[in-house]
Design a protein that fits this description.
Layout lengths: L4 E7 L13 H18 L4 H7 L1 E12 L8 E11 L4 E9 L5 E13 L5 E2 L3 H8 L25 H7 L2 E7 L13 H20 L9 E12 L8 E11 L3 E10 L5 E13 L4 E3 L3 H8 L9
Antiparallel strand pairs: 1-3, 2-5, 2-8, 3-4, 4-5, 5-6, 7-9, 8-11, 9-10, 10-11, 11-12
Helix pairs in contact: 1-5
Length: 306
């Protein structure tokens, strides 16, 4: 058992921040994906292996906790290691650390598999990679464990017809653009989260009648996410998102998001998220008023999950 390995180092760019004034959730995932690429180097699965074998590590199940806001210009670095070694997958852990303070800003736990870049079929991990992974084994720190979410076995993939039958809200629809894809023309991991993030204004408008462009002192923030990646859309595919409320707490909401291929109706990804309303002046969570909680509880859909 060794300490964590440094995997990435960077700073928050202004264009990575949203109207809340902090780094958008999709860019946390992008940094974790860059960290995974560096971890691949330590496992002997780096760029030369990718070029010769046509396969690389991809996340199939992501759990993300956002512990501290990251504002424009903030320097950070990522460190991580391996939690579990299997024949066809690894469970890995990464955390984003503020360079100046040493505080952990976000954590990422992921099941990753070696996938063929073209077909996205799973390949067995090379024996040498598994041996190297064992040398990078770490314990999951307490702050990396799930808090607002339960990490249960993912449900059977839903269908678009099922989502509409449950009355889930239509929150996003659009064509996959070339700029959202990798060199093989497949949607990159960051943009699964980006689509969900882009859907939130429509979600709030349809469920709460709220337009945050008209409420400059009130925003929102995600505390925790889980993503199950179920498909690999191509450039030109049209994706559609359905969202529903799973639970309401004192200050938090738990939303479920199901992303589908519009043409086939098949699930591309399923996600759960714990979120809060945020006072943009104090940067603190806002309690849900009793009247609003009652209204939201009427929107809860039984049986939602990843």
């Amino acid at each position: 058992m060794s300490g964590m390995t440094e995997l990435a180092r960077n700073a928050v760019q202004t264009w990575e921040c949203d109207q809340m004034g902090h780094m958008n959730v999709q860019f946390y995932v992008e940094k974790a994906t860059q960290g995974l690429a560096a971890l691949g180097v330590h496992l002997g699965l780096g760029p030369r292996f990718v070029t010769s074998e046509g396969a690389r590590l991809f996340a199939t199940d992501h759990h993300v906790r956002f512990l501290r806001e990251q504002r424009p210009g903030a320097p950070f670095w990522l460190r991580g290691g391996v939690l579990e070694v299997r024949d066809y997958s690894l469970r890995i852990y990464q955390e984003m650390v503020a360079t100046a303070s040493g505080d952990v800003a976000a954590t990422f736990t992921a099941d990753v598999e070696l996938l063929d870049e073209l077909t996205r079929e799973t390949k067995p991990l090379p024996a040498k990679a598994k041996e190297k992974a064992k040398a990078l084994m770490i314990e999951l720190p307490p702050h990396g464990a799930a808090r607002g979410l339960t990490l249960y076995e993912p449900r059977k993939a839903p269908t678009l017809q099922e989502a509409d039958g449950l009355g889930m809200v239509h929150t996003y629809q659009g064509e996959v653009q070339d700029a959202q894809c990798d060199m093989q023309g497949r949607l990159v991991t960051r943009h699964y989260m980006g689509i969900v993030s882009d859907s939130i204004p429509n979600l709030l408008a349809q469920t709460r009648g709220e337009d945050r462009s008209q409420t400059p002192t009130v925003g929102g923030a995600a505390l925790e996410y889980r993503f199950i990646y179920r498909g690999h859309p191509n450039a030109g595919d049209v994706l559609t998102l359905r969202s529903g409320l799973k639970d309401v707490g004192n200050k938090t909401y738990t939303w479920c998001h199901w992303l589908f291929d519009l043409e086939t109706g098949k699930a591309v990804a399923t996600a759960e998220a714990v979120a809060i309303a945020l006072d943009l002046e104090t940067r603190k969570a806002i309690a849900i008023p009793d009247e609003m909680r009652t209204q939201l509880e009427g929107l809860v859909i039984e049986g939602l999950g990843v």
